[in-house]
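Researcher: Going back to the complex we discussed earlier. I've cleaned up the inputs and rechecked each line, so this should be the final set. Can you rerun the prediction on the complete assembly and write out the structure?
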Amino acid sequence: MPKLWDDSIATHRHAVRTATLDATAALVAERGLTGVTMSEVAKRAGVGRATLYKYFPDVESILTAWHERQVGDHLRQLTGIWTDTGRLEAVLEAYAFICHEHPSSEPAASLHRSEHVARAQEHLVDFLAGLMLDVRDDVPPKELAAYCVYALGAAGAVPSKAAVRRLVAVVLSGLRGEAGR
Amino acid sequence: MPKLWDDSIATHRHAVRTATLDATAALVAERGLTGVTMSEVAKRAGVGRATLYKYFPDVESILTAWHERQVGDHLRQLTGIWTDTGRLEAVLEAYAFICHEHPSSEPAASLHRSEHVARAQEHLVDFLAGLMLDVRDDVPPKELAAYCVYALGAAGAVPSKAAVRRLVAVVLSGLRGEAGR
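Model: Rerun complete. Updated structure for the full complex:
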């Protein structure tokens, strides 16, 4: 097959995938995770049902791909904040606001792809662990990172942005405090 | 119906329920949540399938009842520790070890009864909020309690009992620290 043809297939595949995940994001925002069907996604994405089924066998696989893209976007956002500011506080606050806007119970519970969600969370823990090297030396960086990810998950359960900022302050106290004090 | 008959029905109902949930606990421990079937539960509990279906329409309803009983047991355990010791540290450490032994992702993800799991978590947050009255006055007790429940959930993701104790120390630092310090 000539290279041009290869490129054109890859471009088409990418376009279908992007349209599908954008349509899924819109449907999830409007109706929640259970409101997503293959027909609705195809219609909203402007692709035929047969084409959609060529790329995604079922709704679960679309939701998983959508969640992966979302987690990837969030990780890039956090990495950007770290590169720009070098401030752990800024990264943690940004993550807290992500949790506040996307309460974790919803995707975790309804996707019930625990391995998939667990893997996404591991990437985040690994990223944060890299920022925890100079934080407190009585606890390994990876445990501190897990503490942050879980504790900041509470941002999905608090009622206001002020409460999110208070939560971040409490989590930071935990990072800075000394054990057994 | 005579009272004696009523009592005997209630006793029978209670016995079936207890046997069912005990059998479910054993099956979950052996095979995980997805390994529980109506036939296996009936066999293990020593009740007929028809009897089982009279009390529980499906596996989901059994798992929900089992989870509710388990959460109730844990809450009673934590309340007992508080009554006996009056030490918040002891309550939080006990809860951390509960999370370590029952990693939350598993039931939360597979039961996908988010309202049910959310309600169970609310009871726990309310209980802990009652113990947070003198902790730090810049954050409402309920937010501190949510912080503890989420942060201690990380105990399900850490590899050792020593790591659980380090996590509890970090969480306590968060409770004791002062914001903006």
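Model: Worth noting: Chain A has two domains: 1-57, 60-181.
Researcher: Good, that matches what I expected from the previous run.
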